[in-house]
Design a protein that fits this description.
The longest helix is centred in the C-terminal third of the chain and has 30 residues, at about 945-975. The strands form 11 sheets. This protein has a 34-stranded mixed β-sheet, with no helix packed on it. A 12-stranded parallel β-sheet has the order 37-39-41-43-45-47-49-51-53-55-57-59, with no helix packed on it. It has a 6-stranded parallel β-sheet with strand order 25-27-29-31-33-35. It is mostly beta strands and about 1000 residues long. α6 runs antiparallel to α7 (about 975-1000). Helix content is about 10%, strand content about 25%. It is built from 7 helices and 71 strands.
Length: about 1000
């Protein structure tokens, strides 16, 4: 054989007597070679990670033979047994000379990198009983894993899939007719798409002549069309039938009940429809990942399933709750029912399933308590109740299940103290209580005293975990692979005994009170793939180069919000998430670092002191970047044109730097962009026209630049826009009427530009703002299971706020400091969900709409420095949330009633506001009284602003000093109380005027 042998499996193949070679067996009488077994004993294992990359997770030396088959093998005509599976034959063809093996009983060529159509190579092998030419194998698949901001839950479409290991096809399976003695046929992964797609043909009929067939696998064969029931109805001895991962798109036939010998049925991921039938003869049934298959549990378990040991209905359409009649499947060992919308409480009846070893009810809507009767499941090994609505404590009775190896209860509402007896379950290897309200004090000593865990996670509870720095538990750490202690009130430094956890691939110590430097030995852990030490007070520098493996579904280095300093380290190769934001890193982002980051998925270096230009290497050919955030640094120069290679970008944030030049047109390649934030730079030029291609765009933030020209009308066609922030630029022209077509728009800021014309008449069409939001969802996206946030500067209640996290209830319209004319549109009063409205410093005239009181969500209203006239609508005082009102420097008349519920009111410069006190409400913080003698037209207000300030200042000083002496004399001589009160009332009036002016300006 022309093979390379990296593991030395053929080292015995020396000398002429091949019967002594390992893997070769000869008959005793004739010395003919009758068996060749070269199966790879350690097939390489693979995983598809979060980014759909297929990576090897095998740590052992590859043992596959590589090369091509020698023609000499085909001369062994007496062969009865040939196994070449799980090797690498370099996509060679399956030779026609296989027809010469007339005595062959067992043939296994599976997953050995062949590439060949099957025609007649096996047609004459009439003695064959076992044939496996499968060319794909099952692997863990995390590529469909996602986190929904709306439900705050993880979701997935599947957790396993097939990995093609070669390409074998058959357009016609008539060659099977001669294999009449066949008992096992495995065609997994063989492409039968052409054979099954021809309408009117009974493509599977050749299988029906195989009367001795016991096991048939047609998994992952790209078979389309209806279930081939009629073609296989003669297979009366069939016991195992697997047809998973085929797009059948047909009902699940009830006639399967007629296959009385059938014990194993796998129809996972087949796009099945209709209802699941009653199949009492089965021991194993997998119909998972068929979202249109209706599973009525009450109907299903109404009859006995005496043989059923394995049932998977994950990701199907389950109707109703789990009934008490589930005990009719009394032999159940595995029950998998996650992601199928099961409701109701955790049923006590499950505790009657005494044989149950594996129970998965995760990602449903179960509520109520975990029953004490869980202790009846004495054989239970795995219990997964993740992502439900369970509450109450973890029952102490669970400690009676001595066989328990895995306990998963993440993301529920469990509370109370965590039972310490759990740590006495000697077989417990996986324990995850992340995201509950459990309380208690734990120590490493108590956890590891009895356990030798593989996975531990106590993240996001109310636990105090004490790390016993001086206590050595080296032998207990040997098999620990994942440790999660996020938000566990850890204090002190990171203990170096973590470096004894040599199998660790996930470590999360984030959101604690850890100090000191990061032990360098942590970066030398041989299997570490996910490291999160963020949101602590860690100091010091990082190693020049960091190494991480890819054994976790996504590799990540999360060190954000610490006090780390120095230069940026060289990121790991093929890093998924790289977040060093909000630290004290200095220097530039080198070409070498940038080139590594180009292959990452999620990169955030924001909030450091990085300088220099943005390297063109940050985006290169084949770049997989989805998130790039290098905002809030000191970067300068131009935005690199190589952004055209970052075609996968979803979020780009280069805000708060010193970038110059135009926004490059090359960015148009990122057509999936949702969040574009280039705010607070020195960018110039016109509004980029290529943005009209970003149909997924939700946020555009370009405020604080020097952009000019008109705001384009095409913004109104970007139907997913939620936030438009273009303030503090030099945009001119009118506000496009088309913006009012944006039904998802919640925040519009065009302030401090040179816009003219009128406020759009149809502004009431902004559907998102017409009602108060019933939810408080975060605006942003979870990419690579890490939140990619949106930042927003908002002029809120007379102060500028920077929102690091924006919610759907953060609504506002700010058109202030422009040259807008005309009247305030009446339709603006339809925006009942608007919280902030600022139209100040324009040239608006006319009256304030009388129905402004309909804006029941308004909290801040600023119409100051315009030419508004008429009476102040009394309906303003009926808006309960309204706490900030500024109508100053207009030509308004009327007054606000005593006791109105405002924190800050300003009506300065109006024609007449009356002399009534407006400070009668005890909760007011700032409430200005009004002097009718001060009446400044809007045109004079800005010119005389400084004069008013200095005059008020002088009056205040004079009143405060000389007035005080006068009052003391008067009080002394006249002892009149009303003089005292009158004096301080006047001092308050002057002081509040000065304070109000400072706040406004």
């Amino acid at each position: 054989m022309f093979l390379s042998d990296p593991s030395g499996r053929l080292s015995s193949w020396r000398g002429k007597n091949c019967c002594n070679w390992k893997g070769v067996h000869c008959s005793n009488d004739t010395s003919h070679v009758i068996k060749v077994d070269l199966r790879n004993p350690k097939p390489e294992k693979f995983m598809r990670n979060l980014y759909s990359d297929v990576i090897s997770i095998s740590s052992e030396t590859p043992a596959a033979l590589n090369g091509t088959i020698s023609p000499a093998l085909l001369n062994l005509f007496h062969l009865k047994y040939l196994d070449l599976s799980y090797n690498n034959f370099d996509y060679s063809k399956i030779h026609n000379h296989f027809t010469k093996f007339k005595s062959l009983v067992y043939l296994n060529l599976s997953n050995s990198m062949f590439s060949s159509p099957i025609k007649n190579q096996f047609a004459n092998l009439s003695t064959l009983q076992y044939l496996d030419i499968s060319c794909s194998s099952m692997m863990e698949d995390f590529s469909s894993l996602s986190f929904s901001i709306s439900t705050l839950k993880l979701s997935y479409k599947f957790f396993t899939s097939y990995l093609p290991t070669s390409y074998v096809s058959s357009d016609d399976i008539s060659w099977l007719r001669g294999l009449t003695n066949l008992k096992v046929l495995n065609l997994t992964g063989v492409d039968l798409s052409v054979a099954s797609s021809e309408l009117g043909t009974k493509w599977a009929e050749p299988i029906s002549v195989l009367g001795n067939l016991r096991e048939l696998s047609l998994s992952d064969c790209s078979i389309s069309g209806p279930f081939p029931l009629n073609e296989i109805h003669n297979l009366s001895r069939l016991s195992h039938f697997r047809m998973d991962y085929n797009p059948l798109s047909s009902p699940m036939p009830i006639q399967l009940a007629n296959f009385t010998s059938l014990s194993v049925l796998d129809l996972n991921n087949c796009q099945l429809q209709g209802s699941m039938p009653y199949l009492p003869q089965l021991q194993y049934l997998d119909v998972s990942v068929n979202k249109d298959l209706i599973v009525n549990l009450v109907h299903i378990f109404d009859q006995p399933w005496p043989k059923l040991q394995f049932l998977s209905i994950t990701l199907t359409n389950v109707v109703g709750t789990i009934p008490s009649s589930v005990s009719n499947a009394s032999s159940l060992v595995h029950l998998l029912a996650s992601h199928c919308s099961i409701r109701g409480s955790f049923p006590d009846s499950i505790s009657n399933l005494s044989h149950l070893k594996y129970l998965d009810l995760s990602n449903n809507y179960l509520n109520g308590l975990i029953p004490n009767s869980i202790s009846n499941l004495r054989n239970l090994q795995v219990l997964n109740l993740n992502e439900n609505d369970l509450h109450g404590p973890i029952p102490k009775s669970i400690c009676e299940v001595s066989s328990l190896a895995t306990l998963l209860v993440t993301s529920n509402n469990l509370n109370g103290s965590m039972p310490s007896c759990i740590f006495k379950l000697r077989k417990l290897q996986v324990f995850d209580i992340t995201g509950n309200d459990l309380k208690g004090n734990l120590s490493f000593r108590s956890i590891f005293l009895e356990l030798k865990p593989v996975w531990l996670s106590f993240d996001r509870n109310f636990l105090d975990v004490k790390i016993d720095i001086n206590y050595s538990l080296t032998s207990k750490f040997e098999q620990l692979q994942s440790l999660g202690l996020q938000r566990c009130n850890l204090k002190g430094s990171i203990p170096t005994f973590i470096c004894n956890m040599t199998e660790l691939y996930r470590l999360d110590l984030s959101r604690n009170n850890l100090r000191g430097s990061i032990p360098s030995c942590i970066f030398k852990l041989p299997h570490l793939s996910y490291l999160d030490l963020s949101n602590n007070s860690l100091e010091g520098t990082l190693p020049p180069s960091i190494y991480l493996t890819q054994e976790y579904p996504f590799s990540a280095l999360l060190l954000w919000r610490n006090k780390l300093r120095g230069s940026l380290p060289l990121p790991p190769k093929n890093i998924g998430v790289f977040d060093l934001s909000d630290n004290e890193f200095t220097g530039g982002i080198s070409d070498e670092v940038s080139a590594r980051l180009a292959n990452a998925d999620h990169v955030s270096l924001s909030g450091n002191n990085l300088s220099g230009s943005i390297s063109s290497a940050i985006c290169s050919r084949g770049s997989s970047l989805s998130v790039l955030d290098i905002s809030k640094n000191k970067l300068s120069g131009r935005i690199p044109t190589t952004l055209k290679y970052c075609v996968s970008l979803i979020s780009l944030n280069l805000g708060a730097n010193n970038l110059t030049g135009n926004i490059p047109n090359e960015l148009e390649s990122a057509k999936s962009l949702k969040f574009l934030q280039l705010y607070e730079n020195n960018l110039n030029g016109m509004f980029p026209t290529f943005i009209q291609q970003f149909q997924y765009l939700e946020v555009i933030s370009l405020w604080g630049n020097s952009l000019e020209g008109g705001i384009p009308h095409f913004l109104g066609t970007l139907s997913n826009l939620r936030i438009i922030s273009l303030s503090s630029n030099m945009f001119n022209g009118s506000i496009p009427e088309e913006i009012t077509d944006l039904h998802k728009l919640q925040f519009l800021d065009l302030s401090n530009n040179k816009l003219s014309g009128s406020v759009p008449e149809k502004i009431g069409n902004l559907e998102m703002l017409t009602s108060k939001s019933n939810t408080s969802l975060v605006v942003g996206d979870v990419i690579s299971l890490v939140y990619s946030g949106v930042e927003l500067q908002i002029q809120w209640k007379k102060a500028t706020e920077q929102l690091g996290v924006v919610y759907t209830y953060n609504t506002g319209i700010d058109l202030s400091r422009n040259f807008l004319e005309g009247t305030i549109p009446k339709d603006i009063c339809l925006l009942k969900g608007l919280k902030m409205l600022n139209l100040s410093h324009n040239q608006l005239h006319g009256v304030i709409p009388t129905n402004i009181g309909n804006m029941t969500g308004l909290e801040s209203l600023d119409l100051s420095f315009n030419k508004l006239s008429g009476h102040i609508p009394l309906s303003l005082t009926s808006i309960d949330p309204l706490s900030t009102l500024d109508l100053s420097y207009n030509n308004l008349s009327g007054m606000i009633p005593r006791g109105a519920h405002f924190d800050l009111v300003s009506l300065d410069g109006s024609a007449y506001v009356g002399n009534s006190l407006l400070c009668g409400h005890p909760t007011n913080k700032i409430c200005e009284q009004f002097n009718p003698s001060i009446s400044l037209p809007n045109s004079e207000a800005k010119e005389n602003g400084k004069l008013v300030f200095y005059a008020a200042f002088v009056v205040g000083i004079g009143t405060g000093i000389w007035g005080l002496l006068l009052v003391l004399v008067l009080v002394f001589f006249l002892s009149k109380k009303k003089w005292w009160l009158g004096y301080w009332r006047y001092v308050d009036t002057v002081a509040l005027r000065i304070t109000g002016y400072i706040l406004k300006n």
